[in-house]
Write a structure and sequence with these properties.
CATH architecture of the domain at 2-30 and 128-277 in chain B: 3-Layer(aba) Sandwich
Radius of gyration of chain A: 23 Å
Shape of chain A: globular
Oligomer: heterodimer
Shape of chain B: globular
Structural class of chain B: alpha/beta
Number of helices of chain B: 10
Largest sheet of chain B: 7 strands, mixed
Largest sheet of chain A: none
Chain lengths: ~375, ~475
Amino acid sequence: MAKYNRTHKLNPKFEKGGSMYWLHATADSFDTFLYAPSTCTSSGSHVRDCVDLKRWMIIPVIAMIPAVLFGMWNIGYQHFVALGQHVGFWPIVWFGFLKILPMYLVSYIVGLGIEFISSQIHGKELNEGYLVTGMLIPLIMPVNVPLWMLALAVAFAVIFGKEVFGGTGMNIWNPALLARAFIFFSYPSHMTGDKVWVAGVDAVSGATPLAVASAGGMQGLADSGYSILGMCLGTIPGSIGETSVIAIALGALILLITGVGSWKIMLSSIIGFCCIAGLGNLLAPNAASAMAVPFYYQLVMGGFLFGTVFMATDPVTSCQTETGKWIFGFLVGAMCMTVRLFNPGYPEGMMLSILLMNTFAPLIDWLVVNANVKKRMRRA
Amino acid sequence: MFESKYNYLCGSFGTNTLTDMSDTIRLKAGFDLPISGEAARTISRTVFPDLVSVKPTDFKGIIPHLLAEEGDAVNAGSPLFCDKLHPDMLFLSPESGTVESIERGDKRKILAIRVKCDGKKEAVHFDVPHLIDSGKKEVTETLLKGGLWPAIIQRPYGIIADPADTPRSIFISSFDSAPLAADWNFTLKDDVRYIQTAIDALGKLTKGGIHVCLRPGAFAEAGFHKLSGVIFHEVEGPHPAGNVGVQINNISPMAKGEKVWTVSMMLLPAIGKLFEKGVYDTSRLVAITGPKTNDSSYVRAMQGLSMKEISEYFDKSEAGVDLRIVSGNVLTGENVGEQGYLGFYDDEVTVLEEGNYREQFGWIKPFRLEKYSHSHTYLSFLLKRRKFNMDTNTNGGERTFVCNDIYSKVLPMDIYPVYLFKACIAGDVDKMEQLGIYEVIPEDVALCEYVDPSKNPIQQIVQNGIDLMIKEM
């Protein structure tokens, strides 16, 4: 089969006994990045599916590209709007690109650096999990986050969120959210959620739609000029990846078609969210109250959809059982909306609701699996 | 007594449907692997062997004790070895000739006993009792000395049944849903008489009845639906619907302490011939299949068939390509090589290419038209109804379990697979028991292993778990 390479070999220096053998885990990682490994099955199933973890992990990365591209444009757009300047499309994108590039460089250099060191220590190939985490982290950060802070958050998330548990597949909390939580709790003045930044314009500091709605209800939203169309398109200030519902929906579509993201979690999360928001609508004391903001407004505000699509569906930290996924998703959505309604101090609940449900996911799974175990034991 | 109880279930059926079926089970989980090289329904050759081999490694749960030495003359039906713990459980030579060699591995483990055939087909004749007036004891003794007790596999664990046990029931699957498996509706169509005799004999071994699972549209030619003294179930669905473990789990799942016996439909004619003619005859139609075969078809052969005898079916036209010869199907078979032999339980040989090549940027291509993925992560999933020339490349490196919802989609059992696998890895006997280790054997989780993006050796993991259970119990 000429289309496949039967002669390509890793430099023998990296093989056992070679002078560079100590670096073989890193070398293997780079080598298999370029060429699929030539390992054959030994027994058991003699043929294997052509999907591997690299492929599985690249899908969410691809799914996030619309959000990244839109975020890039939006950074520039918000900047020039704040300055009151009118410039063309490309300068806007170029401005955004220059803002977002250093964040990705920091995210991947720090994160992958730690992963490589860890894979060296364990003598195993690099696990691909960080491809997704590294892509996510800049998207859930405010655009003006200092790079040293970002680096620190990434290091914290990878080391204490993942490696101490045994690496990808063993972690309890979503590492990307852990990075955000780290900054949120360590440097609260930089990341309060009710204020947004606009890149490069220190003087401008507007309130997010969530903060406005929390304080002034529908009237507040209208006064601040936040329309549902703007929030769907995403032409509002906010964290880089979360503003555009359309970009997120494109990502969701990719995740759902490929089957990489769980539709059960996405659907049940939205259901849970709408239930609480609808309940709020019904119980709202008056039309000006934050509770009266219709659920479809709530849905497109803040980071809820982004979190539901890209983070609640993390296969490692969400529920592992199918029944569990329904419960997990529902509670993520319900919890997020509850925080939004009843916690005026911090109107965005998505980060903490996912982290909280990550913590409880093993318990939900335990209950589901235990029901199966009990059924089995009853037969005896 | 037993027959009268169940005869009502087996009344008059149409040719293609079972109208008064006791139950129909529709399984959704699983899929049929689209691998090329299905055997045409023709018998292209009859093999008259020079050499056959009996491999003690085929038989799970026994310790072989040799009864023949190199140079001994044997007939078809002469004992070659027995189980050390059950000396009356004999394993017989399928052909007449002389014992040419005994192949041993590490620690002198017996790997194979080779018999050089003389072509005379001289057979041992066994005294067999009349089934009408024999009971469990007589049937058991006949099967033990007639070399066909090993056809009875016990659940849990998938080992050869203990003759002292009485099983809850006996399950027989009348179809093999594995990739490219021999079509029993075709290969066994002349043997239904012997199958009936075998069922009559096996019926003496249990009071719980013999359950036969039929696949809609795949029993009429052979006439499996005309068997009497059995309880029929109709099982629809993709592979692994034909796995007897899956059928038991969906029809009447096992409880701790229960034992269910299973017998391969393919071995029933041999049991029938033993009771009717008093001979040991494990001849069978063997499907030669797989992407690297010249002429995918059936050959008339026997247990222990040497792969050398059918080497003309192997496609060696491409230089630099190594072949893998598998006794059995691609999911669960044994890699025997061109010098190897067909297993006792197998009626399929699969020939495929060794995947020892490097594919550049394999994982990042949007399409990968040469390769099949059951996932939708390659756009090639849009192209349905294609068969693929699969090879043995793992298509990726081994990782920890990351994905969680893909395994139960290919395992139609009431089991949480990843939890069970992790309990097996951890060696936690209590957890394994709670999570259903009694209900699975490696073949049931073979598709989980196939689809696993983390490339874990799942069948081996489950086998290790089962071995640990046997040791601890």
